[in-house]
Amino acid sequence: MTNRLAQAQSLYLRKHAENPIDWWSWCDEALATAKAQNKPIFLSIGYSSCHWCTVMEGEAFSDSAIAEYMNANFLPIKVDREERPDLDSIYMQALQMMSGQGGWPLNVFLTPDDLIPFYAGTYFPVEPRYGRPGFLQVLQAIRHYYDTEKEDLRDRKAVIIESLLTSAVLQEEGLTEAQDKELLHKGWETSTGIITPNQAGNSFPMIPYAELALRGIRFNFESRYDSKQVCTQRGLDLALGGIYDHVAGGFHRYTVDHTWTVPHFEKMLYDNGQIVEYLANLWSVGFQEPAFERAIAGTFQWLKREMTAPTGYFYAAQDADSFTTPTEAEPEEGAFYVWSYSELQQLLTPEELTQLQQQFTVTPNGNFEGNNVLQRRHAGQLSETLETVLAKLFVVRYGTAPESVETFPPARNNQEAKTGNWKGRIPAVTDTKMIVAWNSLMISGLARAYGVFQQPEYLELAARAANFILDNQFVDGRFHRLNYEGQATVLAQSEDYAFVIKALLDLHACDPEQKNWLERAIAIQEEFHEYLWSVELGGYHNTSSDASQDLIVRERSYADNATPSANGVAIANLVRLALLTDNLDYLDLAERGLKAFRSVMSRAPQACPSLFTALDWYRNCTLIRTTTEQIHSLNPMYLPSTAFVAVSKLPEGSVGLVCQGLKCLAPAESLDKLLQQVQQTQVRG
What we know:
Helices cover 48% and strands 10% of the residues. By secondary structure, the protein is an alpha+beta fold. The protein has a 5-stranded mixed sheet, sandwiched between helices. Strands 13, 14, 15 and 16 form a 4-stranded antiparallel sheet that branches. The radius of gyration is 26 Å and the shape is globular.
């Protein structure tokens, strides 16, 4: 017996289709039903590759007693946060206000008449444990509170909605030129500190912070940190650590330790796009560590093999958990990726195993539940023997040698995983939906990798994904966020617009003579501005003006999380568009956007590195007009806040023209002179 979610397009929602809970998706009918029946809404938000979401689905949401009470006393709604990041953002902020913590699954209780949250939590066990109450107890207590404490409920809601509304309207601050320079320094110093290695806690990629730290190296700001060493170490941790899949490519979500050893095993497209771009930028700065190039190449191969649809777009994610046998009831975390010592002894010669142990963290006892996650001990080039060893491990996983696997078909759900005719291990489930924002981050990463390493296949894969978006994501003249099996759905949100415009500009930078990328970026920017720009406050709302009726507050996201802030990227895009089109209206909007968020940049620089990247673009924007051939020679260099325009005619005897903001310098008579001018204009600070 299945519930309504069996018909959902979202893999995450369909995973709950066999729950005894009478789930609804978020829709007008569900909200109207809750209001008519005076039932509090139980809103549960998660995503398909979330481990604790999977645990709660198999425990509390599959419990018949909990389901019986839930169905009688609440209107339960399931939301995929990857479909509706706007809802997730609002109610996650409410959870953080109430408890000081966040995370998924995000479980929130709303009053049905106004959708205001009054209680929230994350994972609830069936029975009391881990210092948490049992879920049935929670439901009974909340329903009792809803029925008997009306005055307290009213007061509680008033505080919450006032806090949400206040956070959505930021106080503007006007800063002088000198204060702006100090603000940029403050943001850079903060981000550098955040990615400085520590001796505790989980290790996340945190690429928006790493990118800002890297950008700041050129200023020679006074700092308590060795920024070059910090940025390089972040690259080494990523490329050498267990967070990277050394056998088959691709980066896992994060590691559960400070040593970058044991990952949370899901692979998210948005992480991989950002990390590829960062490692390529590190290389272009001059930190040319072979492990960086290997990690980029391996991630490209993984992406092409396992994460690219036949039509060209990129899939969203791969789960952390997988089955070891078709008869297993529940998948095991990391099973597809880890190695027992006895298995390695059987697969490898003694000499090969010795080399593997010398270069990777492999021991008889393992580093993850008795098994081994591969983490490199040293930087540098891997030997041919070790590459042969890793290829042997690839064969165990996939059943075929790396060079023989053009594409590896996804297991789209647990049933496909269990019943597929896999030659090697049973793979983790892949969420095959197309998300514009995440595809765009990957396109940007590939475009930058092409610019640095000049590998045509990187650009070809990126261009194919971009063309899929441009050809398929417009319905009735409007841009859409998702695509399921060829069907575009859900109006685009701010991150979709911002990231795809950046991706198109990044593709344009690879080949400025190809005007289509820039033309399409301009057209999408027009729609973005029309439907999401805040005329009153400046900056971009998360959702369009005609798709916000079901939201209790209309937010303008400025904080960076696992992905960059939409407004940070959008404002940087505006500066780039101004440089490329000579349309200063874009620059006026960028100035207005930065003014809208300066208060939070000053008060909480740790929250918004992408806004500081936008400030860098605004203060240090540089335009180079030169030939296409010269642009190809400049692309591998690290020239942040720089845009290129291809021209066929230059002043006689010159190789290019450098424009510093709104003024142009004397024509450069040599490449050395041009680079000298660029360096000068890039460090105005």
